[in-house]
Amino acid sequence: MAGLSVRSVLVTGANRGIGLGLVQHFLRMPKPPQWIFAGCRDPKGQKAQELQNLASKHPNIIIIPLEVANPASIKAAAAKVGEHLGGSGLNLLINNAAILKVTTLDTETLEDMSEVYTTNTIGPLLMAQAFLPLLKKAAQGSPSSVLSCSKAAIVNISSSAGSITSLYIWDIFQATSYRCSKAALNMLSKCQSLAYKEHCILCVALHPGWVQTDMGSFPGQMPPTTVDESVQGILKVLSSLSEKETGAFLDWEGKVIPW
Predict the structure, then answer these.
(1) What is the DSSP track for the chain?
(2) I need a labelling partner for 36 at 20 to 30 A (CA). Which of 4, 25, 89, 162 fits?
(3) CB 14 within 8 A of CB 96
(4) Average pLDDT over residues 176-196
(5) How do residues 103-127 score in pLDDT, each as one tens digit?
(6) CA of 90: how far to CAs of 18, 134, 231, in Å?
(7) How many whole angstroms separate alpha carbon 153 and alpha carbon 238?
(8) How confident is residue 168, by pLDDT bands cut at 50, 70 and 90?
(9) pLDDT at residue 221 above 80?
(10) What pLDDT does residue 216 have?
(11) Reported confidence tier of residue 1, pLDDT bands at 50, 70, 90
(12) Is the Cβ–Cβ distance between 252 and 206 less than 8 Å?
């Protein structure tokens, strides 16, 4: 991971699955970040126990109470991260938190559609807005003149299930609200790449694979990719990104996914 060197990173949904895996792998880097901000909806809850255990052993992990569907929670989190960083900025924002409602097209409801879209699409929008000043500060403070994840970047964890071209694993689950939210997140990522390029902030949408997590598992179906495999791939991809990839939709192996 020699190509990725960040002083600070924030991961949302960091208490389990891919989010927790990212925190664990950042710790294992040859030069771990000075600050690993782990956003979590319920830091003191049972589902955050493993994250709490990690943080008790590693002082560079700061658990941040964060509900990405709540604007007030996002603003409070940005203020708290800013306090810890002092005068420096945030290098890497990884919008990983997401929800999935296993439904068919016929059973989708207004409530489910709204809840999934709010968390999966509006959440990353508001997160980027709230943390933009810190990302800009990191970009301005970087000695490098080129875009990279080591300088300042927003990584939106998307899904090829949101690709209108591929409609990944449609035969296994429809989950229309999830698919629509990820297709919208892909567009948001593209918009962010255009709007934030002038601030030297790289933005990408990244498909982590179909991963063996609570959210990714279905009865009778074992996802082909482990959390470790996915996260190792993600970090390798992040280490290689440059200006030509900003606004792209890639998978955990670095392959371009059709919109």
Answers:
(1) -TT---SEEEESSTTSHHHHHHHHHHHTSSS--SEEEEEES-TTSGGGHHHHHHHHH-TTEEEEE--TT-HHHHHHHHHHHHHHHTTS---EEEE---------GGG--HHHHHHHHIIIIIHHHHHHHHHHHHHHHHHHH-S--S--TTT-EEEEE--GGG-TTT-TTTTT---HHHHHHHHHHHHHHHHHHHHHGGGT-EEEEEE--SBSSTTT-BTTB--SB-HHHHHHHHHHHHHH--GGGTT-EEETTSPBPP-
(2) 162
(3) yes
(4) 98
(5) 899 999 999 999 999 999 999 999 9
(6) 20, 5, 20
(7) 9
(8) confident
(9) no
(10) 60
(11) very low
(12) yes
Taking residues 211-234, report their average pLDDT. Answer: 80
Total Cβ atoms within 10 A of residue 254: 16
Percent of the chain scoring above 90 in pLDDT: 88
In the chain, the amino acid numbered 195 is A
Measured CA to CA, the distance from residue 207 to residue 173 in angstroms comes to 17
Q: Are 88 and 6 in contact (CB under 8 A)?
A: no
User: Which residue has 């964060």 as its token pair?
Assistant: 66
Look up the pTM and report it: 0.95
Edge-to-edge, what's the strand order for the sheet holding 8-11? Answer: 61-65, 35-40, 8-11, 92-95, 153-157, 202-207, 249-251
Q: How far apart are CA 81 and CA 200, in angstroms?
A: 21
Pairing of strands 61-65, 8-11: unpaired
What is the rounded average pLDDT of the residues 163-191? 93
For 23, the token pair is 């925190």
- What dihedral angle (degrees, nearest 10) is formed by the CA atoms of 117, 246, 83, 39? 40
